[in-house]
Design goal:
By secondary structure, the chain is an all-alpha fold. 83% of the residues lie in helices and 0% in strands. The protein has one domain. Helix 2 packs antiparallel against helix 4, helix 4 packs across helix 12 and helix 7 packs antiparallel against helix 8.
Length: 276
Amino acid sequence: MNNILAIAAKEMQEGIRNRWVVATTLLLAALALTLTFLGSAPTGAVDAQPLDVVVVSLSSLTIFLLPLIALLISHDAVVGEVERGTMLLLLSYPVSRGQVILGKFLGHLAILALATLVGYGAAAATLLFGEEGIAAQSWQTFGAMIGSSVLLGAVFIALGYLVSTIARNRGTAAGAAIGLWLLFTLIYDMALLGLLVLDQGRMVTGGLLDTLLLLNPADAYRLFNLTGSADARLASGMAGVAGAAGLTPTMLLAGLVAWCVLPLSLAALILSRREL
């Protein structure tokens, strides 16, 4: 365990040295504050809590931005070390390849979690001092959004590690990472929408649709946050989807956890068999 924590601390130090922590935190805080100031305007029309409107806005932002950040900081975690020759040096110490993967993963996850907590926390602090009478349920929804955002980031860090263990050079890893981001944030949903339009409810049943949604971590995250509370469903226009979907919040979170564990385990297995 000490070896894993030491590797995680090393990744944190490198993240701070490369300004990843500062840059990511400032970016998330700036966008979160912008959406907070602009997103509370419609609350009078939809009769929703200001914080729930912020949750909807930040969830939509997170789906596109956080996976990209996670892939950018993780896609060369292994292949970059191999190209620089530092992986062999690291493995000369009494650590296993699985410990290297887990330690690096925890370090990158800590960077992303810190940036998310500080960046989105700035939006919450703005509402805390600027709005009165925010319901406790809204704060719970906001907390669940932050926690699930960190989990979504963990999913794409794990996917980045899988890419990094398979790719033979950093350029290939970067291209594959961008391809994964486009697939899960844009292409998959467009293809699914086209399938539903063509099918007209003939073959795609509710159970099959739920499965297809779970096959995309971004969709699981979207459903968890945009249908998690009555006000969030109202503000996002997802009330009809929430009523038709058979996926509970527990199932959606379990899907995200599976999306995190499986790629990370596969990355550790591939690295254990890879010749360096």
